[in-house]
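User: Small ask, check this?
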Amino acid sequence: MSEGSRAATLVRGGVVLPMEGDKQVHDPGSVLILGDTIVAVGPVEEVDRHPDAAGAEVVDATGHAVIPGLQNTHLHSGLLRGTAESMSLWDWLQSYVDPAHAVVTPEIARAASYLAYTEGLRFGTTSVLDMWRYMEGSAEAATTLGTRATLAPYVADVEGYDYFESIESNRALLETHRSAAGGRVRTWLGLEHLFYCTPDAFHAAAELAEEFDTGIHTHSSETIWEVQESLSRFGRRPIEEMFNRGILGPRTVIAHCVWLDDRELALLAETGTSVAHCPCSNMKLSSGPARVGDMRRMGVTVGLGTDGEKENNNLDMVEELKFASLLQKVSTLDPTTGDPWDILDMATAAGARALGIGDLVGTLEPGKRADLVTVDLRQPHFVPVLSGPHFNVAAHLVFSASGHDVADVWVDGLRLVADGSVLTVDVNAVQADAQAAAEELFERRAAHLAG
């Protein structure tokens, strides 16, 4: 829809953090939206003088932080929350996750994506990179909700994993959803893991990414065992093996990357490969702390991800900010690392760059798409809110906030969440559908394991 076919919206009087990289703040400030595009950002009086501000719908953001929409760079839709606890990663995969993949249906998968995207949107996530199954249903969910979604089907072709997606099914999704919903929904290549995918699958994915001009998503180096097993099987560490298989590059995002040595970090930097850091998941599964500070110092783009509902156990990207900072601090014993502005950058501008949409979203500046979030600071856990030399709102967002404090969310200039309520779906119906789908999934998994 063109700018001229939509009324202007003025998000006025909040504490605006544009996240352009210079720690600039407009306090108080405003964001003016025309159609799907931001046309002005700045102090209240300055934006009020913009010609398009006259007659705009005014959303009073007094007492709110205004930030770019959050980018979840690693997600798995799913319905196993709270049932796969206190297990090591590989036991957990074999005992819980993989048997569920063996019996999931398109209908169950669609219900899982509706739930995941609704939860994320309520908590301020405007864009996800989701690795999941039967992703035509995921595309439907994102289109209906109005969010951005990059779809990366779980491809696996090693013997015994033939129930996952295939290169052929990934190609089919690319042919129908390479770019959909006005560009909000896109398809990438998804490779489950080095141990689930043959070299042929990696090479085929690289060729398809070139053919369709799209990205690649996979996991790597989540545990020490994985590194040791890679050395045993291939004679190389995981990132070195992925380099040999031809998938590293500026359109590839690798989740986790916890146990990398200096050579692997250099390979990521040299190839422009991005990393999705998932601190809650890495702590819950006892995977370890990624070398996020070293990655960023070397020029590697690092975004944040929640991972799936089963290993987090929520999809609250605001909460993820705090854990991202604290994990860096405790693992390095350096209180200066995990700075709030750096963490916010990972969740916004850097996350958008990792997803290849940094020219569209990730910061609040004129000409970019109007994806933004307001966070209600009028709560006891934010007192005091200070400006000037003692400005503390960035720290509040990282250390004090949660997704429950998100008040409003816009994507492409459309208000999808207002006063904490999702507007584009019936949330109760989404939850009921997901509950029924989960019960069916567990019944099907039980029959599969028994038989």
In short: The longest strand covers residues 8-16.
